[in-house]
Amino acid sequence: MKRAKVKLKCPNPLFKQWLEEWRDEAIDRNSDLKHVYEKALKSLKKYPLPLSSGKECFVLEYFGPKICSQLDFKLAEYQKKESVLVGTCEIGILENNSSPGTKKEKKEYNFDKEAEKKKIDYVPTTRSSSYAILIALYINHINNKTAEMTKSELLSKAQDFTDTSMFKPQPGSYYTGWNSMSQLVKKQLVEKRGNPPKFCLTIEGLLLAKQLHILHTNSLNEVKNTTVKQSESLKSSTSKVITRKLVLPPKIDCPTPKEMPEVLSLTHPIATNEAEKYRQEPSKYQKDSLIFLPKTFKVILLVDTQETCKGDEIVKELKSLGILVEIRKLSVGDFTWICRNSSNQELVLPYIIERKRLDDLAKSIKDGRFHEQKFRLKQCGIPNCIYLVENYKEHLSLPLQTLLQAATNTQIIDNFTVKFTAGYKESIIYLSHLSSLFNNIFSDLLNGCVNCFI
User: Fold this and answer.
1) pTM
2) Is residue 2 domain-resident?
3) Catalytic residue at 304?
4) Residue 25: which CATH number?
5) Which residue is catalytic, options 20, 307, 312, 317?
6) Is the same domain home to 300 and 415?
7) Domain range holding 205?
8) 307 catalytic residue (yes or no)
9) DSSP state of 449
């Protein structure tokens, strides 16, 4: 005879409920946090014992300090509300003892108050897909006698109120805006009827949608007023022109032979009279500057040692293209260029490259190296930073849209030059072209950085 197994309910229903809410909200916003909350939720369901605080959840897998603190904060709010409700119930009981006829009314009143509290707990993010569905259903409710809408009608109407596609999933994701409907039905804000299904607002959903519609209308009015004020101010001050800086790849001007000085310094050309001073007082200038005469040095591409450990024969292929290459441990960046004279003195050219494959870029964003590496590049003293991003067709740990947004921020906010290539072979061609270009330009004109930065 087999033993009967009794399946116990989740010993932590509140934590389970809150994690589900946060996961659903993340799905609604198309945030990667949905995976974090889903993993934490699965881990919580496997744990057989009750937990009294978010801090105790830290022992579970996928529970970090942030989720634990979120649970503690939510638990404190819940306990505060519960203490208020308990006080209300006790007052009701005392009053009911003195007047038994009003007992039913007291209970109904307290139930309504609790319902209002629950309704306020969930408010969708502005211009999210849940927000758009509620607004579309509410507008249909006030304009038509039949408050029900089919899926196709709702999709087309809701799209006007959200930035998320209601029809197609985002790149790297399986979710569309329509996935939010299951969340709204689960929270009893929308009711699903019939087959084929039609959707309408519940009483709670109608109340929430009405408030959202009021906020939506007010925000539109504010935008209109702001637009009118801005147009008036522009008309009154036509002499002032506001432009946005466009981030373009660094421009290199090739000087003509007439413009080219006889001697070039570390940071700026030295005029003939300054060269005479240098010859008269060499010790004074040698402390601060390193002087290279034109056509007395070679341009060499430095490759970081880490780049030679990735399995691709990048150094071998660069040398086959006639590029002077050296492998060296670089403190920052993956590639840079130096000029070396016959005395083996070196200057760094003002260009440095950080190379990232798409999967490496995703990993660096997740573990925080992405921002740390950009900060170090900006602090190294080399003015022209190039972010070289190589395509990678395998599975990525982050959506492609997130990676493209990170690259865009790197160009616009950090003022880097961002270069996309189809793969490492195209990157080699790009590096060889840059090396040839720098060799032609800097053979007569040199602007470098001190060698302590490499």
Assistant:
1) 0.39
2) no
3) yes
4) 1.10.150.110
5) 307
6) yes
7) 129-221
8) yes
9) B
